[in-house]
Amino acid sequence: MALRMCSFVRRMVSVAGVLPLRSLCSTSSSPLFLTESCVQQLKKVTSNNEHLRVSVDGGGCSGWQYQFSLDSTVNCDDSVIEQDGVKVLVDEVSLDVLKGSKIDYQREMIRSAFVVADNPQAEQGCSCGVSFSLKI
């Protein structure tokens, strides 16, 4: 409970820009897990200098939403998750909300997309799977 509250408080303070992140909490970051489907799709759609960026932003019908983009810039606060020659970039604040999650690539009849699966910090989400609320 304390770790989840700490992550939530860090995110709120970061969004508000009130205090430096490290001044509130000191937690270690757990890695993200990339599925084989995610790795294979990234090999198809990225070049040597492009990586998948995963971030969490406020919004969506459940309060928070996942954002996916291709990016060639690694920022100083990014964690880089590398597997089988592909890289996923996650900023420090988003990693707190995503730690322990799986990044997957799902193919469905009406769409195919990168998704965050099994997020231990997420309490509930909308039917589209893009937005979620945090466990507090």
Order of SSEs: HEHEEEEHEEEE
Poorly predicted regions are 1-30
Q: Tell me the helix content.
A: 10-25%
Biggest β-sheet description: 6 strands, mixed
Q: Termini distance?
A: 7 Å
The total beta strand count reads 9
> What would the average pLDDT be, to the nearest integer?
80
Structure annotation, total helices? 3
Q: Overall 3D geometry?
A: globular
**Strand line-up in the sheet with most strands:** 4-5-2-3-9-8
Q: What gyration radius follows from the Cα positions, in whole Å?
A: 15 Å
* Percentage of residues in strands: 35-45%
Class from helix and strand fractions: alpha+beta
Give an account of the 3D structure:
With 136 residues, this protein is an alpha+beta fold. 24% of the residues lie in helices and 37% in strands. It has helices spanning 2-16, 36-45, 92-98; strands spanning 33-34, 51-58, 64-71, 78-83, 86-91, 102-107, 112-117, 122-125, 131-134. The strands form two sheets. A six-stranded mixed beta sheet has the order 4-5-2-3-9-8. A three-stranded mixed beta sheet has the order 1-6-7. Helix 1 packs antiparallel against helix 3 (92-98). The protein is globular. Mean pLDDT is 80; it is low at 1-30.
Name the features:
globular, 136 residues, alpha+beta, single chain, six-stranded mixed sheet, three-stranded mixed sheet, 24% helix
Summarize the topology:
Blueprint lengths: L1 H15 L16 E2 L1 H10 L5 E8 L5 E8 L6 E6 L2 E6 H7 L3 E6 L4 E6 L4 E4 L5 E4 L2
Parallel strand pairs: 1-6, 2-5
Antiparallel strand pairs: 2-3, 3-9, 4-5, 6-7, 8-9
